[in-house]
Amino acid sequence: VQLQASGGGLVQAGGSLTLSCAASGDLLGINVASWHRQVAGEEREMVAVITRGGVKNYANSVKGRFTISRDSAKNTFYLQLNNLKPEDTAVYYCRGYISATSSFVWGQGTQVTVSS
Prior knowledge:
The chain starts with a strand and ends with a strand. The strands form 2 sheets. Strands 2, 4, 5, 6, 9, 10 and 11 form a 7-stranded mixed beta sheet that branches. With 116 residues, the protein is mainly beta. The chain has strands at 3-6, 9-12, 17-23, 32-38, 45-51, 56-58, 66-71, 76-81, 90-98, 103-106, 110-115. It is built from no helices and 11 strands. Strand 7 (66-71) and strand 8 form a beta hairpin.
């Protein structure tokens, strides 16, 4: 399975973006899908996670503003970013956990920049 992230861009504070992460293989092979972000010089942090069964969890900093979802028919999972703040500026990465091989696969990053 390979992941391809897209949807980043430049947006004003208060705006919205939708990030997509398309899997080249069967998304069902990914037990847990997640989004992470990283600011230059800082550690990568988990933003949102969704299990195959649809259980979701979010970082406190994005609760109520971001929504993670997955569409198995399209082999894609998403991150809806609403009410964006300048501190949300980062490179966003998608990641999948493949239980069959006990391994993680990362997508390439997509830049999100929020202007004040």
